[in-house]
Amino acid sequence: xxxxxxxxxxxxxxxxxxxxxxxxxxxxxxxxxxxxxxxxxxxxxxxxxxxxxxxxxxxxxxxxxxxxxxxxxxxxxxxxxxxxxxxxxxxxxxxxxxxxxxxxxxxxxxxxxxxxxxxxxxxxxxxxxxxxxxxxxxxxxxxxxxxxxxxxxxxxxxxxxxxxxxxxxxxxxxxxxxxxxxxxxxxxxxxxxxxxxxxxxxxxxxxxxxxxxxxxxxxxxxxxxxxxxxxxxxxxxxxxxxxxxxxxxxxxxxxxxxxxxxxxxxxxxxxxxxxxxxxxxxxxxxxxxxxxxxxxxxxxxxxxxxxxxxxxxxxxxxxxxxxxxxxxxxxxxxxxxxxxxxxxxxxxxxxxxxxxxxxxxxxxxxxxxxxxxxxxxxxxxxxxxxxxxxxxxxxxxxxxxxxxxxxxxxxxxxxxxxxxxxxxxxxxxxxxx
Length: 433
Fold this sequence. Notes:
It contains 13 helices and 16 strands. By secondary structure, it is an alpha/beta fold. An eight-stranded mixed β-barrel has the order 5-6-7-11-12-13-14-15, surrounded by four helices. The protein has a three-stranded antiparallel sheet with strand order 1-2-3. The protein has a three-stranded antiparallel sheet with strand order 8-9-10. The longest helix is centred in the middle third of the chain and has 21 residues, at about 180-200.
């Protein structure tokens, strides 16, 4: 309570549009020193059933019921009176106060979108008041590791209207010497892929995250196209650019197993899907598979990781939803060996940090991630550097809301200069296929 400590003096929120044209929240936090910080909240399409809940208006006369006026009102009428006068540097205290104000287990009363918007904006305000960039404020003087990007270049599943069951086929330019070079590898491969699609008279329309959405004979054809594009860009598959997958298997899970309806591949068991992935790992330079099975298939995931986890990174997203309760179970049961981290799945900056800390204690890797419904907010770029996770998913090197994250990381790398670290968490996936 020392003299000169900045205090929160105003908090408000407004309804804006995300990258899919749906409403989302933008929150502003003002301090009594004149600092003004802004944060915008993303939204997912492929969401885990245990995620913290966005508050939508359910008013069919506006935005098909997806408006967020009520969430904005909760920011100004409930959260702001409780936080005004507080020190913005006390992030954990502020976040836990909002959790108490909400009073539910999933933040459904005030809305996870309302709570997260305030949490992010408070962190930004505190960073500005401290005279530090956000990554240095959240991560301290040791925050200097740039993440390897995972760039979604072929979209399927619920992210695209095509023949692909699996949601994301990603480039991982892990063999670059710097983040800037990794971005170049990714962008050059992306443009090579576009040329190949045009040559094959396939559409170059893009999905929600900027990747192309061609209809192909089967899911494996996307892998072959990506390897061809890596080579066409003058790069070496595996050594310089590898592949990561996010099948988002919860989206095609059925009572009878996993129904690959879009490609017409029929129904597969957990074991058959794992065998499919194993064959692909043999044939293609795959270093990571996220949500290869459904969010409720805990035993299947355990066997999946036992079979594949010594060879590649196995990432849990929908099964954990950035929630320490589920991550703790995953650690105990050896469900995966890595977790995806999405702040809006859990709803506060503090809880997101706690999830990362728990993963670190178990020796797991973490991948900080965007959502399919994004904004131009670059919070996750700074956050990935602050936490030193070494990996980020931000979509294709295309579309302003995706490129904003990469451009912010380029700025951070330049600002860090010789102190910047860029290193791959992956062993070289030998040149295959």
